[in-house]
Write a structure and sequence with these properties.
disordered N terminus; tt1808, chain A; alpha+beta
């Protein structure tokens, strides 16, 4: 690879300055900037349903949801990262002038072909290192299936919750999310379009 082909390395300050004026959102991974791709209508409907459900459930409470316009700042292996989760819930918010959050208690990502590997592997490892995080939920697009990682003392418990009548309980927030409501307005395919079980499930 020639020097002209090598990606540029950016400091955190340079990244945040670029994001403040950029028309395209990008994530920051250990000094490298990764542009985000657009999402399908299906992806946005599921994400929007989650945000609205959590907003209604947490109204007048100290915790509040944020959509994918809000970054989270992370420390991984001694280096900084900034991601844009589809949905996050924060109970200990940064200052209102901040452009990122540090202490999410819940993160939700909706899988898509372009982000699947990131959400189930790279981001899984990084998210589960967040001290404040209580639950990480990954949602399929084409079937009512949720992969749920819950904090239990110092360990993480993995669940697969599926079926339109199933419910994801979030006792640390005092609410629940039904898959029927999460997938409201979604037409399902006969099978998931990605790899069949068990190849793509969280290990």
């Amino acid at each position: 690879m020639s020097s002209a082909d090598k990606p540029n390395y950016y400091s955190v300050e340079e990244y945040l300055q670029r994001e403040a004026t950029s028309l395209v959102k990008s994530e920051y991974v250990d000094g490298w900037i990764r542009a985000m791709t657009g999402a399908s209508i299906r992806h946005n409907c599921i994400k929007g349903n989650c945000f609205l459900l959590l907003g209604n459930a947490l109204k007048n409470k100290s915790c509040r949801p944020f959509d994918s316009d809000m970054k989270i700042r992370l420390n991984w292996g001694g280096k900084r990262r900034f991601y844009y989760p589809d949905v996050q819930v924060v109970c200990d918010s940064n200052d209102q002038l901040s452009v990122y959050q540090d202490h999410p208690v819940l993160i939700i990502e909706v899988l898509s072909p372009s982000t699947r590997a990131y959400d189930l592997h790279e981001k899984l490892d990084v998210y589960l290192s967040i001290p404040s995080l209580q639950c990480y939920i990954v949602l399929e697009q084409h079937q009512p299936i949720a992969y749920v990682m819950r904090r239990s003392n110092q360990e993480w418990i993995r669940e697969i919750i599926q079926g339109i009548d199933a419910t994801i309980h979030l006792p640390f927030l005092g609410c629940s999310l039904s898959l029927k409501d999460i997938y409201e307005g979604i037409e399902f395919t006969e099978t998931c379009v990605q790899e069949p079980d068990p190849e793509y499930l969280m290990q």
